[in-house]
Amino acid sequence: MKKIKILLLAGIFACFAVSLSASPAGQYMHSQIQELKGCKNMGLSDSYGMIMMEGGNGFSAYGIPKELSESLSTLNAENKAIYDVCLTESGYWYIVGDTLRGRGAPKFIYDKVAELCAAGEHVLCVNFNDNGIGIVVTEKSISCNDNDILNALVDGGKKYGKLMSVCLRNKGLLAVYEEGFRKVGIVPDDLVSFLMDTDLDVAYAKFTDGGSWFVGTENQTCSYVFK
Asked: Shortest CA distance to 225 belongs to which of 87, 22, 61, 86?
């Protein structure tokens, strides 16, 4: 598939280094990032569109499930913050922000989120895939219903420090820490190479099994490949 090569300078546009394919979703998300001069975080899917978090209650989306779009629009209208969105290849989703809500997540996710919220913990990340594996991250804990993945995430923290974000897909996992990252299974090679070479203070890294990916920082400097 033909790709359009674009370079956006961080100091001017708050965005860095892009290779963009000519898909409608990718084109739309790219135009939004250009207009807003950066992006901190996104939700990606090969089959059910893309979402970018614009800060606060703002968001832009293309091709996402209707129920997710309606939920995001409701949060926007209620002026409730939207921090992260998990979106699977089956069209299931989970929103993390001032409100926690989702559709189609494993029972483990709903039970663990309820348990942690009842204990007064602040949920930072909820991620799951279509294979029934789920991850919940708070300021104090990491929970997962797969022991191998849980051990990998905990071991990564011992080596690289605080866990910043997690992206779990059907074929692979990528965890970003303060001082490095850990991957399990299949993660796009160009994303791994970028993370190994970048000087950015990466806070979020998202990818799809089809090879699209996004990397963002807290100050909305970003790099991405949309296919």
From this structure: 22
48-68: pLDDT as tens digits: 999 999 889 999 999 999 999
pLDDT tens for 108-151 read: 999 999 999 999 999 999 999 999 999 999 999 999 999 999 99
User: At residue 217, what is the residue type?
Assistant: T
pTM score of the predicted model: 0.90
Q: Provide CB contacts within 8 A for 94, sequence distance 6+.
A: 85, 86, 100, 101, 102, 103, 105, 109, 126, 127, 128
Q: How far is CA 77 from the centre of its chain?
A: 23
Tell me the DSSP string of the chain.
--EEEE---HHHHS---EEEE--HHHHHHHHHHHHHT--SEEEE-SSS-EEEEEETTEEEEES--HHHHHHHHHHHHTT--EEEEEE-TTS-EEEEESS-EEES--HHHHHHHHHHHHTT--EEEEEE-TTS-EEEEESS-EEES-HHHHHHHHHHHHHH-SEEEEEE-SSEEEEEETTEEEEEE---HHHHHHHHH--S-EEEEEE-TTS-EEEEETT--EEEEE-
The residues, any chain, with a CB within 8 Å of residue 57's CB and separated by 6 or more, are 75, 76, 78, 79, 80, 81, 82
Distance from C-alpha of 43 to C-alpha of 52, rounded to nearest angstrom: 6
